[in-house]
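Mods, move this if it's the wrong board.
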Amino acid sequence: MLTENVIKTTEIPSLAVSQSLRIHAAPTSAQPVNPIHCRNWDAQVGAHANSSIFYSVAWAKVLAATYGFTPICFVENSGGAAQSFLPLMEVRSWLTGRRGIGLPFTDYCGRLCPDADSFNKLFWRAVEYGKARGWKYLEYRGGREWLDGARPSLSFYGHTLNLDTDEDGLFARLEGSVRQAIRKAGKSGVTVTVSRDLEAMQTFYSLQCKTRKKHGLPPQPFAFFRNIHEHILSHNLGVVVVAKSQERPIAASVYFQSGDRAVYKFGASDETFQHLRGPNLVMWEAIKWHVHNKAKTLHMGRTSLGNAGLRRFKLGWGAVEEQIEYVKYDLQRSQFIADKDESSGWHNQIFRRLPVGLSQLMGAMLYRHWA
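Not the wrong board. Structure tokens:
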């Protein structure tokens, strides 16, 4: 149970719900807490059907340690136990301002509330809190259908693979081109390892830098991935899967797992060896590994609506497609607003031309401002 003395250690000010917000939701006793300072946090949040590793203390520590973000979760108690949660991070930037995001570098935040009324109470409580803190806006990556009158600020595709059958059944679900790619990689002598070592993360990062350059985006700093290793992989909550051809890394991916839910979080490859189909073999071996480790689903992350190639890749594995919708509430204008998917634009041409070392430096500087 989230006891009173635990809440006090968060050093996050509590605010009453103002009269202006009672048109949206009834007053609530929800308290803002820092999950890192709460006993039994993971057990309580993990009890929710929509919970994932992104609500865990481990992920909060990764973001706090890497970027200095402050974890804030609004908690509603019922019958002496925490029942509803709205997880956020306060991002403070001299360049882009102060705001609340649920959650930075997280593709999707499922609802941790029993009904729409509970979600509304927590959301508008967070809005009032954010106004007092001087936030520019509150962005939440999910829950739009439970907010009356809210339009999506951004929309993406999401894909989930059900791991509810054996290896043969999963292989039979794959599109023919995917099965062919897996067989080709195996016949070409591509080998795959599954590891939690920091060395494997370093191997992934070297490929990630190449992949981000190809897409015209800066890589996140290695400190981010080192913290993932420290707080997630070293606690048996994730793995790095690496494919090699004659001992040369050609593809790698990072996966998280909490309970029976797995997440495909990052993928990278060396385009020079694209013909060997390393990414396909990495994904297949990761699927088999997660089935062996009792995962029931594998979420494959978000995909921009205009990225037809990535969408085809994920659908080829037999994944179920859904729509992921974000909401963004402007606290200065008191209204929901639309946003722009900034994964593509003029900046892509610049980062494609930058040397990898300079792009890494830019990524280390920029990601704490553009969360």
